[in-house]
Amino acid sequence: VIALPPLLFAATLGLGLLLHVLMPVRPLPVLPARVLGGVLLVTGLSIARWGELTMRRAGTNSRPNQPTLAIVTDGPFRFSRNPLYLATTGAYLGVALVLDALWPLVLVVPLLAVIHWGVVRREETYLEEKFGQTYLAYKAQVRRWI
Question: Would you say 80 and 146 are in contact if contact means Cβ atoms under 8 Å apart?
Answer without folding.
Answer: yes
